[in-house]
Specification:
Elements: H1 2-15, H2 21-31, H3 34-42, H4 45-58, H5 63-87, H6 91-99, H7 101-132, H8 137-153, H9 157-168, H10 173-180, H11 185-193, H12 200-213, H13 216-229, H14 236-268, H15 277-288, H16 290-324, H17 338-357, H18 361-389, H19 399-429
Helix pairs in contact: 3-9, 3-13, 3-14, 3-16, 4-12, 4-14, 5-12, 5-13, 5-14, 5-18, 6-7, 6-16, 6-18, 7-8, 7-16, 7-17, 7-18, 8-17, 9-16, 10-14, 10-16, 12-19, 13-16, 15-16, 16-17, 18-19
């Protein structure tokens, strides 16, 4: 078990009694990672498609939502930080210890289902990027699998985090695409004023954007990553900044995709339906040129897909380990934590195999989004219950903040389920 605590012990030693602003800055850099990585993974392939759809169909009319979702995303993920640093346990382990093994298996069962769907979506995005440049699906999948396995099998927790952040940084390409699209400032401002909340199609995309930002596997990943890194109560402040900065960055990226789509596709072909990475890229190429419309956009999608694949696969491996009790730390070498690494390999290879054999990836991606939305009440319900019951008395939610967090969790769950049901009904009547 010493492998599970040694990284945290070192982090905890670094963060005690900082002496200067330089020391505090070094402490922040040592602590930063779980929040930034999970937030970069949040802008995954499904989120990119959702943001592009929003801009194509409603122009800048959903840009306000990307801003509103920053504090909502922070409030939800901050609970994982609070639970991780003050209990030292991952999400699955804490549910098991607080509510019993049955509920732990219920929660991790939902996690595994969500992770299966998510990893398939990410690999579908990788295939879509490869097809833009004429690569066969199997070549794209093999390269992705090799990269994902190499990152985790050859690195420590710190190296895995740094690799994930480096890969996720390619998502900043979306900001370049948005700037190159030359959006109209007056139309952007008008979009904040035109909010047709009585339109069912508009409300559906509101729900879809919420579902694209609050992912079930994000909760498991960040709390488990905080625990695995060994962050302690002294790291709480820096961890909150890690989460807050990540929330801002991921929503800027989402807004950039929406703006790029609204300034090009939404202007030239309003109401266009964009269901795949290829469709989005092909729609942008005539308006932005080959270099920006294809190359830079492809880099952003590839970064989003790969960092999300790392996070999703690790979330599954951590969650199952916390419930079953097998060794589940990136500080352990593969020979000491065989089941942990085996689950990671199964998630990565299994997702690639499914994407390589299933032809209708669009319908598959839609089904994944619906499933994730339906799982939100389960995942967020456990998160909120733990915040009230499992935390030490001095750091539990209380007062107006407790009511605000509860309202955010309930509203997010309700809108997520609404979007899922609406999608199912529309699919059945199509």
């Amino acid at each position: 078990m010493e492998g599970n605590v040694s990284p945290g012990t070192r982090v905890g030693m670094r963060v005690t009694a900082p002496k200067s602003w330089r020391h505090r800055l070094l402490v922040a850099f040592a602590v930063f990672g779980p929040g930034l990585v999970v937030m970069l993974a949040d802008t995954d392939v499904g989120s990119v498609i959702t943001a592009a759809q929003s801009g194509a169909q409603w122009g800048y009319g959903l840009l306000w939502l990307q801003v509103i979702l920053i504090p909502i995303l922070y409030l939800v993920q901050e609970l994982t930080v609070r639970l991780g640093v003050h209990t030292g346990k991952g999400h699955g382990e804490l549910i098991r210890d607080t509510f019993g093994p049955v509920w732990a298996w219920v929660s991790v069962g939902g996690l595994v289902i969500a992770c299966i769907g998510a990893i398939i979506t990410e690999f579908a995005g990788v295939v879509g990027v490869g097809q833009l440049f004429g690569m066969p699906a199997w070549e794209s999948l093999l390269l992705a699998v090799f990269t994902l396995l190499a990152i985790v099998f050859t690195g420590s927790h710190t190296r895995v985090e740094r690799a994930a952040m480096l890969i996720g940084a390619f998502e900043l390409a979306f900001i370049a695409v948005a700037i190159y699209a030359r959006p109209d400032g007056s139309r952007m401002a008008a979009g904040f004023m035109h909010i047709p909340l009585r339109d069912p199609a508009y409300l559906y995309l509101v729900a879809a954007n919420i579902g694209a930002v609050i992912m079930p596997w994000m909760v498991f990943y960040q709390q488990s990553a905080v625990a695995d890194k060994g962050l302690a109560p002294a790291d709480y402040r820096a961890s909150r900044w890690d989460t807050a900065i990540g929330a801002i960055v991921t929503q800027i990226i989402m807004a950039a995709v929406l703006v790029a789509s609204a300034a090009t596709i939404g202007r030239e072909n309003p109401g266009a339906s964009l269901d795949t990475v290829g469709e989005i890229s092909h729609a942008l190429v005539p308006l932005l040129g080959v270099n920006v419309g294809r190359v830079i956009f492809a880099l952003g999608v590839l970064g989003a897909a790969m960092v999300a694949a790392i996070v999703v696969s690790l979330a599954a491996a951590w969650g199952l380990g916390e419930v079953t009790g097998y060794r589940h730390s990136l500080a352990d070498r593969p020979r000491h934590a065989r089941w942990f690494y085996a689950v990671y390999v199964l998630a990565v290879v299994g997702g690639a195999v499914v994407v390589g054999t299933v032809k209708d990836l669009v319908s598959l991606s839609v089904a994944v989004e619906v499933m994730n939305a339906l799982l939100l009440p389960l995942v967020l319900g456990f998160l909120l219950a733990l915040a009230f019951k499992a935390l030490p008395t001095g750091v539990r939610l209380r007062g107006a903040y407790a009511w605000m967090v509860t309202a955010v969790v309930v509203l997010t769950s309700v809108l997520g389920v609404y979007g899922a049901i609406t999608g199912i009904v529309a699919y059945l009547h199509a």
